[in-house]
Write a structure and sequence with these properties.
The chain is of the alpha+beta class. The chain contains 1 helix and 4 strands; from the N terminus they run ββββα. It is 51% helix and 19% strand. The strands form 2 sheets. The protein has a two-stranded antiparallel ribbon with strand order 1-2. Strands 3-4 form a two-stranded antiparallel ribbon.
Length: 113
């Protein structure tokens, strides 16, 4: 059985059973209470960290997500920057060509008069 380590929390996750489509689109903090030896736990309270109840924990999560985003998309951002640079160069080249054409037209007018 293959597993991966969650890059956000560090827990082992089964690849076969990993299905993020069932996840809530929220960052929840859950309070639990033990049911006794070997009987598990029950959720006593559940609330969203996005409501601002624990800004320090939310900052830790946010910082980690920033690192993961950079890890996943740094190549895409570099390509986008390169494309932007190329587009800027292309616009400059077009402008230079227009200027040269205008200068040529002006020279032709001077020569014909």
């Amino acid at each position: 059985m293959s597993q991966f380590i969650c890059p956000l929390c560090g827990k082992f996750v089964s690849v076969r059973h990993y299905d993020p489509s069932n996840f809530e689109d929220d960052i929840l903090l859950v309070q639990v209470r033990g049911l006794g030896r070997g009987k598990g736990v029950e959720i006593t309270e559940k609330y969203s960290l996005l409501d601002g109840d624990d800004p320090e924990l939310l900052d830790l999560i946010s910082d980690r997500v920033d690192v993961l985003y950079e890890l996943l998309y740094e190549d895409d951002e570099a390509e986008d920057e390169e494309e932007d640079d190329n587009a800027s160069l292309s616009e400059l080249e077009k402008e230079l060509r227009r200027d040269e054409e205008e200068e040529d037209e002006e020279e032709e007018e001077i020569l014909t008069t």
